[in-house]
Amino acid sequence: MKHDPIASGKRKPLNVSVDTGIVDLAREAGLNLSQICEAAISQAARKARDEKWKEDNREWIAAHNDWVEQNGLPLEKYRLF
Fold first, then answer.
1. What is the rounded CA–CA span in Å between residue 30 and residue 43?
2. Count of CB atoms within 10 A of residue 42's CB?
3. How far apart are CA 52 and CA 50, in angstroms?
4. In Å, how far are 28, 61, 76 from 34, measured between CA atoms?
5. Which of 34, 50, 52, 59 shows a CA-CA span of 20 to 30 A to 43?
6. How does pLDDT run across 32-52, given as a tens digit for each residue?
7. In angstroms, what CA-CA distances link 81 with 34, 69, 74, 76, 77?
């Protein structure tokens, strides 16, 4: 797993209820349920954080997009693509 600047590196025991069929299938496949749960929770938390940021900054984003539409991209003449 790549370095996560948000992760503390510490572990906390957590009780999670998962469908027994899913657990059996994962164990048969030799999957590490703790790592999978951690990755899924991390992904969901990041998505929720990003969505909140977008909502909190919605007005600024709209104003910026309007400015770019009216004025073009700054330094556009230097783009190589």
1. 22
2. 14
3. 5
4. 15, 37, 47
5. 59
6. 999 999 999 999 999 999 999
7. 44, 19, 15, 10, 10
Q: What pLDDT does residue 21 have?
A: 97
Tens of pLDDT along 17-35? Answer: 999 999 999 999 999 999 9
The CB-based long-range contact list for 43-51 (8 Å cut-off, 24+ gap) reads none
Query: What's the pLDDT tens digit per position in 7-18?
Result: 888 888 989 999
In the block, residue with structure tokens 């059996």: 24
Task: Write the DSSP string, 61-80.
Answer: HHHHHHHHHHH--TTGGG--
Q: Which residue has the tokens 């539409």?
A: 69
d(CA 11, CA 61): 37
